[in-house]
Automatic annotation (TrEMBL):
The lineage of its organism: Bacteria, Bacillati, Actinomycetota, Actinomycetes, Propionibacteriales. GO terms for molecular function: peptidyl-tRNA hydrolase activity; tRNA binding. It is an enzyme of class 3 (hydrolase). SUPFAM superfamilies: Peptidyl-tRNA hydrolase-like. It catalyses: an N-acyl-L-alpha-aminoacyl-tRNA + H2O = an N-acyl-L-amino acid + a tRNA + H(+). It is found in: Cytoplasm. Its EC number is 3.1.1.29. Its main location: cytoplasm. CDD domains: PTH. This is Peptidyl-tRNA hydrolase.
Length: 205
């Protein structure tokens, strides 16, 4: 698809996959936002040599620019280079650069209070203890952005929540993870193309 490099304005959507950078964290539950962003990047068009992601000039995130479908909305996919509890700054910088208001921002993140394999989409809300959402809300000064919430479930037994989110998926979960990632990417596209109500009807089940 076409690459609207440098495109700014109200027709641009900023879609952010929340996670922690680097190979150490790549397979963790906390990084499902990165996985969904990777899936969306593959859908935006032919993958250039070296991969789809490029460093943004702000120096604090990697981005992919393109369109959803033929002549569809302009989209900037982003993966912040900062750790989860500091993602707000880089995302705010991107939103300012591309002139994206919170109502054109989608954050993809893991959600403890939703069972693994299920999704929820919504607009606004608190952070529910999620460090990435807390940082983002603080930097933007509002929580009124869209969220695509990929369920990871609660830790078993007495396992600490921080240890749980910063650990790899179980072998059984890994067999289903690709399906969840594809569905979450579908939900992002639906949210942008068809709106929240229709997307919730499709995916909030």
């Amino acid at each position: 698809m076409s690459d609207p490099a440098g495109a700014t304005g109200s027709d641009v959507w900023l879609v952010v996959g929340l996670g922690n950078p680097g190979p150490t964290y790549a397979g963790h539950r906390h990084n499902v936002g990165y996985l969904v962003a990777d899936e969306l990047a593959r859908r935006l068009g032919p993958v250039p040599k070296g991969g789809p992601w490029r460093s943004h000039k702000t120096g604090r995130a990697d981005v992919v620019e393109g369109r959803l479908g033929l002549g569809g909305p302009r989209v900037v996919l982003a993966r912040p280079r900062s750790y989860m509890n500091e993602v707000g700054g880089p995302i705010k910088a991107l939103a300012t650069f591309y002139k994206v208001a919170p109502d054109h921002l989608v954050a993809i993140h893991d959600e403890l209070d939703i069972a693994f394999g299920t999704l929820r989409t919504k607009l606004g809300g608190g952070d529910n203890g999620h460090n990435g959402l807390r940082s983002l809300r603080s930097s933007l000064g509002t929580g009124d952005f869209y969220r695509v919430r990929a369920g990871i479930g609660r830790p078993p037994g007495r396992q600490d929540v921080a240890d749980f989110v910063l650990s790899n998926y179980s072998s059984a979960e890994r067999k289903e993870l690709d399906v969840q990632v594809v569905e979450a990417a579908d939900a992002v596209e639906s949210l942008i193309l068809d709106g929240l109500e229709k997307t919730q009807q499709r995916y909030n089940s």
